[in-house]
Amino acid sequence: MRRQVYLNMMKVYFISGLGADKRIFKYIQLPEGFEGVYFDWLSAQKNETLADYAIRMAEKIDQSSPYVVAGLSLGGMIASELSKRLKPSFTLLISSVPVASHLPPYIRLVNKLNILKIIPIGFLKSTALAKRVLSVMSYADVKLIQDMLKDTDAAFIRWGMKAVAEWKNETFPNPYAHIHGTWDRVLPIRYTKPTKIVKRGGHAMVVNRYVEINNWLKEQLELVAKSQQAATN
């Protein structure tokens, strides 16, 4: 019988982006030997940083066997924080950034000017965020993203935007891989250095460019499996 370290199914913990939930990963397909675990958001505490939030989220991860963490957008930043504390086998970032210095500078400027305090969250949910993630998609996918925005707690959106603007992490996950689209208007690619580029991919390419995302996940996770096998031989 061929021996495989991951016969018990290695878990891949997925964290969605701000204004989204686990439904954003509806098209994700993992290779044989891997099981996706899709987190629900925790309610944010007052003045909680992304680092503090990640510590609470870490409690939901089973560390008794090898695992992978994967994050989309805000979820990728949380995945980076988790990687510093828990040392997963691998960290996967989708349409995100690994460190705070890769954030576009206007995010910090908006926070410094206290603009977030005066912009109505209803506007952010219905217009600003939506326009930046909705590229060429089917009607069903557009509706999915709009529904997720509608269902997201307004206070959580305000917290998330402030927490990102005040994020301080400069420690890269190790090891990690990062996929990013050239048409990402939320986190423009010119400010970061992904390991994989998707031409004309937008911020929500996990929905409308899922074939490339799934191929990339398969490639990365198969490398993880081989690494785990080599470590036990």
Explain what this protein looks like in three dimensions.
It contains 9 helices and 6 strands. It has about 230 residues and is α/β, with parallel strands linked by helices. It has a single domain, classed as 3-Layer(aba) Sandwich (Rossmann fold). It has a 6-stranded parallel sheet with strand order 2-1-3-4-5-6, sandwiched between helices. Helix 2 links the parallel strand 3 and strand 4. It starts with 9 loop residues before the first strand and ends with a helix.
Percentage of residues in strands: 5-15%
Shape: globular
- CATH-level-2 architecture: 3-Layer(aba) Sandwich
| Overall radius of gyration | 17 Å
CATH topology: Rossmann fold
Spatial order of the strands forming the largest sheet? 2-1-3-4-5-6
H/E element string? EEHEHEHHHHHEEHH
Secondary-structure topology with pairs:
Layout: E1 10-15, E2 34-38, H1 50-58, E3 67-72, H2 74-86, E4 90-94, H3 105-112, H4 115-118, H5 121-133, H6 139-151, H7 154-165, E5 176-181, E6 196-198, H8 205-208, H9 210-232
Parallel strand pairs: 1-2, 1-3, 3-4, 4-5, 5-6
Helix pairs in contact: 1-2, 3-7, 5-6
Quick synopsis:
With 233 residues, this protein is of the alpha/beta class. It is 42% helix and 13% strand. The protein has a single domain, classed as 3-Layer(aba) Sandwich (Rossmann fold), CATH 3.40.50.
